[in-house]
Every structure is written in structure tokens, then in C-alpha cells.
Amino acid sequence: MALVSLRGAVRNELAAEVALEAIVALVLFAIVGAIAGAIAEYLIRDDVERKYRRKVAWYCEQQEQHAAAKK
Tens digit of pLDDT per residue, the chain (71 long)? Predict the structure, then answer.
């Protein structure tokens, strides 16, 4: 938004036009950021869940081996 305002000031554009362009740029970047954030959240959550399940499976396997060794 600041860059759009600065560009408008350099080009001597009307404040109303600059404000409208700045708001549009702000909304577009907010949408892109929201999409990128949702994708990142999904990927991170999936990776953490996969690592957790792998660790739990390893722990259960170790417990079974330990129990079998005691018998």
C-alpha cells in the first residue's frame, strides 16, 4: 500500500485514485497471503502428523519387543 501511495505521489496522481489502487493491491496481497498460509499450514500439519505417527509406531514396536524379550 505504501508503494502504491509513493508511486501516486511521484506521478502527481489524485489521492482518490491512489487510495483505490492501494486498497485493491492490499486486498489482492491479503488473498494471496491467505492462500499461501493455508497451503503452508496444511503441509506442516501433515508432516508433523506423519512424524508423530511414525514415532508412536516405533515406540509401540519397541514395547512389543521389550515385552517379548521378558518372556
Answer: 677 777 788 888 788 888 888 899 899 999 999 999 999 999 999 999 999 999 999 999 999 999 888 86
13 Cβ partners below 8 Å, 6+ apart?
Answer: 7
Instruction: Look up cell 521389550; give the residue.
Output: 66
The count of structural domains within the chain is: 1
- The domain of 57 spans 2-70
The answer to whether 18 and 5 are in contact (CB under 8 A) is yes
**For the chain, what is the HEC assignment?**
CHHHHHHHHHCCCCHHHHHHHHHHHHHHHHHHHHHHHHHHHHHHHHHHHHHHHHHHHHHHHHHHHHHHHHC
